[in-house]
Amino acid sequence: MNYIIGEDRTQMKIESIDSYVNEDNEVRVIDKIVDVMDIESLGFNVGKNDTVGRPKFNARDILKLYIYGYFNGIRSSRKLAKQCVINKEVIWLIKGLAPKYRVIADFRKDNAEAFEAVFKSFVNYCIELDLYGKELIAVDGTKLEASASKRKHYSKNKLAKMKELAQSKILEYLYDIEINDNNEIISKDIDKDKIVESIKRLEEKVAYYDDLEATLIKNDNNEINLTDSDAKTVKFGAHQGTDVGYNVQSVVDSKNKLIATFEVTNNSADQGQLYNMSKKAKDIFDCETIEVLADKGYFDSKDFEKCEKEKIIAYVSKPRYSNSIGDSRYFLDRFRYVENKDIYICPEGKLLECITKKIETKTKRYCNFDACEQCKNKSKCTTSSKGRTITRTEMEQFAEIITNRVKNNQAKYSQRQALVEHPFGTLKRSMNFYHLLLRGFSKVRGEISIAFFSYNLKRVINILGVKGLLHSLMSLILISMGVV
């Protein structure tokens, strides 16, 4: 058969390591960008490599290895150690070094804060290159599975059930012993010593559960994880259920879909994060005003008030608040508020006037019980025997401003999903960033930093090209040397 034949394995070859990668290979950018970093000022533990004793690996080499790994979806320290031997790009990048997996793993764990400094430094560099528009941003969050054992995750409800099961089993054992003692003939099926030992183990479990419950009460928590104390139960999606993890908030700039900043929480809800994330981005960009897009999970009147004061122009979709019946024709958003008359108009065209005001809570109540009594659709609107009541807070005016702004700018708001979902899609599908490998807020922030840095680097290479970015980095080197 006429097959293409490979090379003879015994054939000797002479080649340099530099021939392993082409001139326009992305790995050359990773090499150069780490070389221009002042890694000691960024916080990396470089160590004192004196002439006495065994020499250490250069922090730059391990950093290059990690950037390459996250860039290509290889995050395991064991897999990275293997790449040092089998991958020509990695061999070129770290010049044939082959650190053990433990050295690689410890570097990531010990330099979590430095990784965050790398991410921020690269954001500032991209700002200098005018790659951020600084005009329109999008905010969103994604859930990432924590490096935490589900078996060692306890909530108050789980502890109560486990205690109940253990105590029930103890009672069964005690009953078996009592029945056996009352019988004249001792049953061969019952080993009293083993049962006593089992009861002892169960009592130790109950005491252990009591200690965990006391810890929860003391710390005012509803759950605890023994492998990652900062991780909490978060909702991953409508069809994915809940799991132990973190909620990662990110801000994406509209110009080139680059991530500007991020935050890590262990709260499932996005509500309350709009102002915090927008303000962080605004401070980083050092701009006077900025527009922000977010989904209905960020709809929060208090946040809107803060945003308006800081000249952050928010566009957030309003969630639909149902009534107790579930008929969408009579949901709250179908009741129109007329500001100059301070009234609501119901879907049937009837007026609901303000009947009470509470100064301390700054709330008003609106109703028209007479109209409700005569309305043929009352049963579809409310379960109250008197009629429908609407409560309005002082903050509602800000919510209405945002709602009207979205209605009048649908074309702009429609950009939200394409902007903010793009990074998460790339990170999860292309870069294998579905779950976390480190534990605790500090280390998790470090791991997310290196992942987000790698994403931004990938984007910048796509925008400027390998040669364009290398030229920019070379100019940076010359400037630091005082040549330019």
What is the element layout, followed by pairings?
Blueprint: H1 26-35, H2 39-42, H3 59-71, H4 77-86, H5 88-93, H6 101-110, H7 112-128, E1 136-145, E2 153-155, H8 156-182, H9 192-218, E3 223-225, E4 232-237, E5 241-253, E6 259-265, H10 274-285, E7 290-294, H11 301-309, E8 312-316, E9 336-338, E10 343-345, E11 351-358, E12 363-367, H12 369-374, H13 378-381, E13 389-393, H14 396-408, H15 410-413, H16 416-430, H17 441-480
Parallel strand pairs: 1-7, 7-8
Antiparallel strand pairs: 1-5, 2-3, 4-5, 5-6, 9-10, 10-11, 11-12, 12-13
Helix pairs in contact: 1-3, 1-17, 3-17, 4-6, 7-17, 8-9, 10-11, 11-14
Question: What keyword list fits this structure?
Answer:
alpha+beta, 17 helices, 484 residues, six-stranded mixed beta sheet, five-stranded antiparallel beta sheet, 16% strand, flat
Question: Can you describe what's shown?
Answer:
The protein is of the alpha+beta class and 484 residues long. Among the domains are: 156 residues, no CATH class; 73 residues; 60 residues, no CATH class. Helix content is 47%, strand content 16%. Strands 1, 4, 5, 6, 7 and 8 form a six-stranded mixed sheet that branches. Helix 1 runs antiparallel to helix 3, helix 10 runs parallel beside helix 11 and helix 11 crosses helix 14. It is flat. The model has no long low-confidence stretch (mean pLDDT 87).
